[in-house]
Amino acid sequence: MACAALPASAAPERTFVVADRPLSDDLNPGAVKTWPGGVTSHADLRYAAISGWRRLTLDLYMPPRKAGPKPLILYVHGGGWMNSDSRHFGAIADLPALLARLAGEGFVVAAIEYRHAREAAFPAQGHDVRAALRFLKANADRFGIDPARTGVIGGSAGAHLAGLLALSCGDARLDPDGTKAPAGSECVQAFVGWYGVYDATALAAQRPSGRDGGIEGLLGCTGGCPADKLALVSPVTYLDRSDPPTLLIHGTEDKTVPVEQSHLLEERMKAAGVPVSAIYIPGVDHSFMGKTPAETRAATLRAVNASFDFLHRQLDMPAAPGTR
């Protein structure tokens, strides 16, 4: 049955704002939530729109706007480069509440999403982490950030990507071709890595097969990855003496990422003159999983508290003029 049209005299007049150009800004970010201590979080803020890919977003946790701009902490999630999201970290039951707690201690905290390996092979993930940091620095006034005081923290695959960001300051190999960005906009002043992969070549050599499936999935290789790709994906490749102070934390019984990965990076950093400290938690597996819930809780609390304290030591004071 045909629908009867409204008489012209009865049709409503619909008016709305029309811009003078097509818009691509993030006009409708997700939920806003308040937390103890006056912290406010904004979910799903878009930091990048890459043609042909899904929108890339982050959750932002901001302390009350008082006493000047605050240091920025970028959180990069783990999940084998294939899984998980910005609201999960190891055995922490409520990561958003933990990040809000960190914000309540005087940091702006951003938990980012990035493209998983089945969506895009490396170096797409490196591009995404850099894009998130640059977005936040470019909007420093809007978000109350001091762009000269930034830190990055991640666990497992997130520690790998955080390590790449921290150690590759000034290296264009982790930017898409044609990138034009302010010098140093990809640099950070502190790095915390939890049970991360830092040398893909050494990791593959530790496996009985001489290969690592996670790295192959990230790089899109089959039957082993060539040496140049393994070097490009390894944070140690970019290491030099100007890299930021670093804290490494790893369980000694990690069966997913061997603790030797953190030992290796610690030794290389010391040799290069980079300030580095490390905590090796005995008897603890990947994600700080102990043999009992009590051991898991103790290890996780130790790691979180050490990480918070480290970030305060490195970032609480304004950076000296000329600091990258």
From TrEMBL:
Record's keyword annotation contains Electron transport: no
Any one GO molecular function term: hydrolase activity
Q: Specify the superkingdom.
A: Bacteria
Keywords assigned: Hydrolase
Q: Where are the transmembrane segments?
A: none
All residue ranges annotated as the BD-FAE-like domain in the record: 58-268
Q: Does the keyword Hydrolase apply?
A: yes
* InterPro entries in UniProt: AB_hydrolase_fold (IPR029058), BD-FAE-like_dom (IPR049492), GDXG_lipolytic_enzyme (IPR050300)
Protein name (database record)? Alpha/beta hydrolase
Recite the lineage of the species: Bacteria, Pseudomonadati, Pseudomonadota, Alphaproteobacteria, Sphingomonadales
